[in-house]
Amino acid sequence: MTCMKKDDKKRCGICDIPYFERNNYYHGKLMTVRDFFAEQCYSNEKRWLINRMIHGWGVMCGLDVKQKPVDPGDLSKGYDPHKVLITPGLALDCCGREILVCKEQEVVLVPEVSECDKEKPEDETEKKLVLCLEFHECKTEPIHLPPIACDQKETCEFNRIRDSYKILVKHVGDVDIEDPYAKNCPLIEDKPSSLHDYLCKKLKDGCPQCPEKPCLVLAEITITPTQDPNAPPPLKIDQCSKRRLIFNNALLFDLINCFHGDLPHVIDINWKENGATLSWEDWADPDKGIYTQGAQIEFDKKMNGDTINDHTFIVMVKMIDADTGNYRYELAPGDVSYSYDDTTGKSTATFKFTSKWLIDVYFGYSSIRQRGGEFKVVLKSVFIMSAEESGKPAKALDGNFIGGRLPSGNGTAGGDFVSWFYVTSEPAESAAKGKSIKKK
Predict the structure, then answer these.
(1) What is the pLDDT, as a whole number, of residue 309?
(2) CA 44/CA 16 separation, integer angstroms
(3) 107, 86 in Cβ contact below 8 A?
(4) C-beta atoms surrounding 240 within 10 Å
(5) Which of 147, 155, 198, 316 could form a cystine bridge with 329, CB 3.0-4.6 A?
(6) Per mean pLDDT, which range of 5-14, 23-32, 329-338 is the poorest?
(7) Taking residues 181-204, what's their average pLDDT?
(8) How far, in Å, CA of 430 to CA of 283, rounded?
């Protein structure tokens, strides 16, 4: 086994090294240069393989590209149109090799000239260049070796091999640059039977390969000449559109937490459970019945009370049309309020039916009183926000009531919270008592 050859950087597939071999140690083993070299290669090649297959390739951090000031102490003097600066950073090339830049680098914007470029006429309108970062091994610490035979001369070798890099300026047409992302999305392709099937198909398509003319892009630079020969040509530095990125775990966590973490959820409702059937006595209980206390929803976070109102907290009643016999949902009139207890942390939204509506239902001859009724409760979660506190931004309620199980949510902000409950008809003896109360 040999370490990656110079030509291998053009294509770093999984089988450029068909197998991995390491030393088998035993007493009396004679260690040669080949054995020590194989020991290094075994570790390096395995690490590089995992790097490129698991992490991919691209910039991990830093490596900012910016124009070089003519005078760093006085920016009013402008910038050098022929030079840029690259800040320290870390990247992986398409072979999985680590590239560490520890000092700010100054790069002159003079591109490499290929044979094809020599045949092209000079573009007088604008020039597009690309900065490529490449892995480079540099031999250091030269030492002189004495001759080992009478007819041999003194030779020179190097005591160390340093992992280093090159920053190359190339014409855009001399490298293969692909859009680094947005290649995999089951929503815009033929809908798979499951996400697993989609991923299985993608992974079976083959392993990632380096392009024929790879370039670990740091920036694309456009130079537009000016009509004034004394004016320096302006530089447009595009660092993001073609740059591949590798996301570390801390950054990924923050992104996930930003969109999906710390979302408020519904944790309790006072109609027992979704689809519950409440007896008329439970419904009308003066201490805890929905008739008097209202429909109450509890959250696990402090909410912005202004976002909980009669537009976002809705209660509907299923009614029968006397003329057609069809069912319809009518908005129940009520007052919406929100309360938060600083001591207990209890966060509650309440919908209280208006007194007139309750009197009509309780004492009147409504279909709810006579035959029972169905109530639907809806929270427009996308508009209901948590309170902004301790520097944390407000987030929309994660309201999806999946399977009727609490707490609500599927990890995504928004999604209407929808629940319902039934109320049985009023018993005959209670109805008679209600009529006598009304007569008095």
Answers:
(1) 96
(2) 14
(3) yes
(4) 9
(5) 316
(6) 5-14
(7) 78
(8) 13
Q: Are 425 and 369 in contact (CB under 8 A)?
A: yes
SS3 of residue 356 by DSSP: helix
Which residue type occupies 413? A
Q: CA-based angle 181:44:168, to the nearest 5?
A: 55
Residue 420 pLDDT: 94
414-to-204, 315, 417, 437 alpha-carbon distances in Å: 35, 19, 9, 46
Average pLDDT of the chain is 84
DSSP-derived letter for residue 33 is: H
Cis status of the peptide bond prior to 208, with omega within 30 of 0: no
Q: What is d(CA 371, CA 369) in angstroms, rounded to the nearest whole number?
A: 6
Model confidence over 30-48: pLDDT tens digits?
Answer: 999 999 988 998 999 899 9
Beta bridge partners of 131: 169, 219
Q: Could you tell me if residue 435 is left (phi over 0), alpha (psi between -120 and 50 degrees) or otherwise beta?
A: alpha
What mean pLDDT do residues 312-335 have? 83
Joined tokens for residue 323: 């003329």
What Å distances lie between residue 42 and 17, 45, 92, 304, CA to CA?
10, 6, 19, 59
Which amino acid is it at 200? Answer: C
The Cα–Cα gap between 47 and 208 comes to 16
Report the alpha-carbon distance of residue 228 to residue 134 in Å, rounded: 36
Tell me if 130 sits within 8 A of 221, measured CB to CB. yes
* 318's tokens: 């299923």
> CA 223, CA 121: separation in Å to the nearest integer?
16
pLDDT value at residue 435 = 45
CA dist 35 → 16, 22, 159, 172, 343 (Å): 20, 9, 17, 42, 70
Could you give the 3-state DSSP secondary structure of residue 226? coil
Strand 89-92's sheet: what is its strand order? 58-62, 89-92, 98-101
Q: In the block, which residue shows the tokens 């291998």?
A: 8
The residue type at 282: D
The residues with which 61 forms a beta bridge, in sequence order, are: 90
What letter represents residue 210's amino acid?
C
pTM: 0.72
- In this structure, are residues 95 and 77 in contact, taking their beta carbons and an 8 Å threshold? no
Structure token pair of residue 327: 């069912």
Radius of gyration, CA atoms only, the chain: 36
Mean pLDDT of 344-370: 76
* Cα separation, 111 vs 127, whole angstroms: 10
**E-strand stretches of 287-365:** 295-299, 313-320, 327-331, 334-340, 347-353
Evaluate whether 51 touches 98 at the Cβ level (below 8 Å): yes
